[in-house]
Queue: 4 jobs
Job 1
Amino acid sequence: GAAVKALLGAAASRRRALDLPRTDTDVFRFVNSEGDGLSGLTVDAFGDVLVCQISAVWLESRRAVVEAALREAYADLTGISDARVLWRRAEARLRQDGWDGEADELASGDRFAATEGGLAYEVDVFGQKTGFYCDQRDNRAFLGPLCAGKSVLDLYCYSGGFALNAAKHGATAALGVDSSATAVDLARRNAAANGLDACAFEEADVSAWLKASDARYDVVVCDPPKLAPSAKTLPRATRKYQKINALALGAVKRGGLLLTCTCSSAMTTSGNFLGVVHDAALDAGRQVTVLRTSGAAADHPIHPAFAEGAYLTAVLLHVH
């Protein structure tokens, strides 16, 4: 108990040093598993809600202690003493370790509000990850101002983060595409809640949509789901990344920008993502220049001995 309290106190101290939460942002990564010394525990904060992703059996046996310590550390950081703690289990991982408990109590439709960069979001805790991709916050903030007066295409848009930021910063049009009906519904609700009329969203398979469209955009974001969950699946995933990036490059106007991402630790740690993007450019007949390479937001700390913690790579390309 004392060790967990000390580690959570240190995690809170790191977020305080990053000025999190702040007036315009109450969604952030509060605990980043190995990066905060708490293997198997990931916690995203959404105002007065803490969503925990659980992937280690030790957390199940110490749930009451962990939840109490979480509330105490979060109260110390934010002044919120009665945070609601939601426990979302990675059941397949837990059962591999011998866990035989009951299934997750969370259900779709458990939604709450969050704010990032002054934009209001409706979060579905049963959606992807903990319900929101706060790891892309810094990348959204960087790209948003570059979209002023531009047309924007947000591929695998989920609840609309990149499209909403583009519209907030003056994009003339921001179109998001995602195969999930729930995600597209969330994105539309988020656009309406923020009064962003420049946003539109379509439910479609991204590859099929790109193959059927001949439209070109000033700025394209390509942020697919984890295609390589392990090193074993990397060769197949590499081919998928190459194909989707070739299609995405074909949707960029000459002189435009592509922000392409991988959230697969196996791809990032292989060091080959830029090579895959280069091959995709050859396939698409486009020339690309790397303007910026970045990772997850700073509230996703990495332990030096756990390189796999650096899972996200985002590459901003000038396409000509």
Note: The CA atoms of residues 228 and 237 lie 5 Å apart.
Job 2
Amino acid sequence: VLGTRHLVKVDYQPGHRRPLTAGAAGRTILAHLDPPPVPVDDPGRLAEIRARGHDYSHDELRAGVSGMAAPVFSPAGVEAALSVVVPVSRDDDLTTWLPALTTAAHKLTARLGGHPHP
């Protein structure tokens, strides 16, 4: 969903592909796949993401963009990551979205009949 309150926006098109190892959403999914399907440079970071329940990225997938993501689970395991992305000029605003982001990810998980990763 594209925001409407600000002039500067981040617009990822449906179907845009990114590596799992880069960006908050990809790493959030990767952190919950065991074993990881791709080589991982920093397994400790994936463990931190699992423990924290979300991830943050800054200038990784697109210059000038920060993002935050939380995992969504089905009974089969991690299904997706729900994310919020903003221009780096609004990076401070990003953390204010964390409670809503994690709540929404938990609600989607419940609707899918999944359970958050222990």
Note: The mean pLDDT is 86.
Job 3
Amino acid sequence: MKKTAIVVVGEHFSGKSKTINKYLKAKLGITERKHKFTYKKCAGYILSQSREERQDFINDISKYSKYDILVLATRPKFEKNSLLQDTESKLKMMGFEVIVIQIAKDQGEDFYKTKATEIMAIISKQCV
């Protein structure tokens, strides 16, 4: 099984956390406050707060290397202080396959539900 990092990318207040906390976590059967999950035989961890809001992440990323699935949020490359490229680089160095999911602002609930379903499909494919 290949380790997979799913990076949810979107502008500030675009719905990254909503997609992850409200819809994805429900599909995984965990509450909005939980971060760890097990799906089939995979151990996973979710970081819904964007990396830019939590500056220590890049230096502290190695503690997540033990997980099979990592879901995290970041802002797009074009935003000031974006950590997307650094995050992708560090994750790849740790042996994660990185998959980026784009989130757009003001798309309505069906959009965020669909994105959570898309993320769940990736998790399902990886955790066979």
Note: The longest strand covers residues 4-9.
Job 4
Amino acid sequence: MPGGGHIEIDAISKWYGEQQVLHEVSLDIAAGEFFSLLGPSGCGKTTTLRMLGGFEAIEHGSIRIDGVDMGGVPPERRPVNTVFQSYALFPHRTVADNVAFGLRFLDVDKVEARRRVAEALSLVRLEGLERRRPHQLSGGQQQRVALARSLVLRPKVLLLDEPLGALDAKLRRTLQDELRALHREVGITFVYVTHDQEEALTMSDRLAVMNAGRVEQVGTPHDVYDMPVSTYVADFLGLANLVPAHANGGGVDLLGASVPTASSGVVGDCTVLLRPERIRIVALDDATIGGTVTDVVFAGPVTHVTASVLDQSLHVVLPNDGSPLPSVGDHVGLLFSHDSMRVLAP
């Protein structure tokens, strides 16, 4: 496999008629990185991917791969291949023929083609299934064939457009692990489009959160989750309590309590992010604030608790480690520390 390609996206914009769907998007994706574009439907992530792949024209700005400008370069001449959610396999062809299809357009002899097909199928753990046809495979196996068909062409960049979206939750988790391991093994650049925040957090080296055609934040999963730059990012990634508050320089006043914080640069009315897993239920004497439990939902390894505090609902996630759980109607203490809060502009 070749090394990964370094991608530089510089202020690209895109219009469909009078509607602007991308607003000067800029990204720098390192060679060999697993990079995700995360956001809701219509945010521009797939359009960005299609412009990378050459399926949409670059109308404003530029895209470079390893320093080479991709403007005007057709898809088949870019060091890029794409895996779509639909897989797009030929139903009448065998697995081996599907994987080998793209090689017919390259100067590859039959012996080398067979060797590269075998190598690609080995990478995705489909040895022994060469003669099967797509209808004889599971959804996960069909996805692996689509991956092998892209990898056999030895691209520098692999684009993945919600490739696991059609699979059930358990299989999706299995293939998430396999894709991450595959990325480490082949060493090429992966650009992964998803609306699933858990998928982006667990798989990515870095990710870009997109909103309405703009990039809201770029960073590691840890940084974007723990240090969101806006209420949009905070709310989109994971469960979030977004609490109206007032910052006074040395702390914040919220829900009837004054809590010291590190300087955030925000003064006056603000919004405080409290992640539900960072709130503990304790005795009232030890608590930051008190509240009344309004809902308790068992969810396997964790329990979701909702407490009402001055007409504000706070969500708490408790591990099911055998500790006693509160009941609806209980008056409980809620404890959170200054380092569990993120102060954001309102």
Note: Residues 122 and 148 are 9 Å apart (CA to CA).
